[in-house]
Amino acid sequence: MAKWGEFTAAAPELAAFGLRFFDRYKVALLATAAADGGPRVAPVTPIITHASLYVFVNPKTPKYADLVCDGRCVIHALMDLGRDDEFQIAARARRITDSAIRADVAASAGFPVLEQDRDSQLFEFDVARAFSTIWYHQGQPDTRPIRARWRAP
């Protein structure tokens, strides 16, 4: 597993590609495993600050229970409209209870995290794998995917 900053240092182009998606849409899809093993997908707002990837999660939601029970997950960035390009990371979530870190991440978020939901819990995500697809000449006869992959050492 690697912190976002370590991933960025090891695969700067791939990390920059993902960051563009996160910055543009502010929302990504979090895929977790429910207690019965079934898949669950929910929207989240990734916050990348201080070389780490964070998400605030309401503890009353199923995604919170999934992350606490089994922190393995996938975060899939929303795609550009009219394009099929994609970016996703496989990660492991860890709950952060340090109030100074919570306050710092909330201040860096660019939106009022703690004012919206004072019960929100902060999770940090360590990256296990990252993946992107860019479609070359999308919609043309010579359309083909250009893929990039990275795996933590």
Short summary of the structure?
This protein has helices at 4-10, 12-25, 62-69, 99-108, 113-116; strands spanning 28-33, 39-44, 47-49, 52-57, 72-77, 86-96, 121-136, 144-151. By secondary structure, it is an alpha+beta fold. Strands 1, 2, 3, 4, 5, 6, 7 and 8 form an eight-stranded antiparallel sheet that branches.
Written account of the structure:
The chain has 153 residues and is an alpha+beta fold. It contains five helices and eight strands, in the order ααββββαββααββ. Strands 1, 2, 3, 4, 5, 6, 7 and 8 form an eight-stranded antiparallel sheet that branches. Helix 1 crosses helix 2 (12-25). 27% of the residues are buried. The model has no long low-confidence stretch (mean pLDDT 91).
Which oligomeric form is depicted? single chain
Q: How many helices in DSSP terms? A: 5
Q: Determine the fraction of residues in helical runs and give it as a percent range.
A: 25-40%
Shape: globular
Poorly predicted ranges: none
What structural category arises from helix and sheet content?
A: alpha+beta
Strand content: 35-45%
Tell me about the largest β-sheet.
8 strands, antiparallel
Radius of gyration: 16 Å
Q: What string, H for helix and E for strand, traces the elements in order?
A: HHEEEEHEEHHEE
How confident overall, as mean pLDDT? 91
Q: How far apart, in Å, are the first and last alpha carbons?
A: 7 Å
